[in-house]
Amino acid sequence: MITVEHLTKGYGAVTAVDDVSFECVPGTVTGFLGPNGAGKSTTMRMICGLTPPTSGGSTVNGVAFRDLPNPGRHIGVLLDASAQHAGRTGREVLGLSARLLGVSQQRVTEMLELVGLAGPAEKRRVGNYSLGMRQRLGLAHALLGDPTVLMLDEPANGLDPEGIYWMRSVLRDFADRGGTVMLSSHLLREVEAVADHLVVIGNGKIVADGAKDELLHSGGLYVRGLATDALEKVLVDAGLSSQPTRDGGFAVAGDAETVGRAAAAAGIVLLELRPADSGGLEEMFLRLTSNDSRKDAA
Ligand SMILES: Nc1ncnc2c1ncn2[C@@H]1O[C@H](COP(=O)(O)OP(=O)(O)OP(=O)(O)O)[C@@H](O)[C@H]1O
Q: Which residue range forms the structural domain that includes residue 157?
């Protein structure tokens, strides 16, 4: 469980994180979404005690990170896969951490196997790893202490499609076994496939927080029929608010039964009647990306 309460961080005139509160609960994957410079990394750094907040606080399983006796046994963190000792081999990196955490070398072997680095790869220096291999090692490192919480900053960076699919299945499995997962991304599509819950941050502030299905389908219904003009008239006559879409359909605020019955009564053949795509969230996300990206300004 991760609990964030009124977390705020100012850097001079910039408020990188502005009164942010949310929870990541056991058994779920929370996608922490926001454009570049939105405040994702700063929030994560505060959660794991690397950056002191200006105000507010956060806990992991009810305890402030800095007060956890052996933090790696509670929360596995992957903030920057490239920040690993380049001169050590993959096995050495994990082996040293295992000694610090008090876990066995057998666990090191298991984690290397889990992330697909067992064999020749584990004997290569991390400096010679691709970014995707570093992400795999970073995930093995995060899982090493058998924590109940995982917090990962952009873990899909550098992974190929097969690697992204694999990463999702590891995270999904971790959550399905009761673990808490928080992962950040600046790509909605990337977290959509794995997250149950979404927290969206823009310009340091939370702009959306809720179940993924609710947020993605807050755009109402999508309907498309054979006779476009007639369908539009039917929707108007039924008192339903609708917007034409570029592909000849309509985004409708209403329930499927009302739309379906109204179309049937008018003898209109419907080709599609379904929840709208992630239009609402995606549009909001695009707006954030165009207006709130502070990377350019920074
Ligand atoms: N150490 C720092 N000193 C000054 N400003 C900082 C510092 N760290 C972050 N910032 C600023 O805080 C804001 C949020 O940055 P942060 O790295 O948390 O965003 P992010 O959402 O993780 O972005 P990205 O996806 O690009 O990593 C940015 O405007 C950034 O320039």
A: 2-216
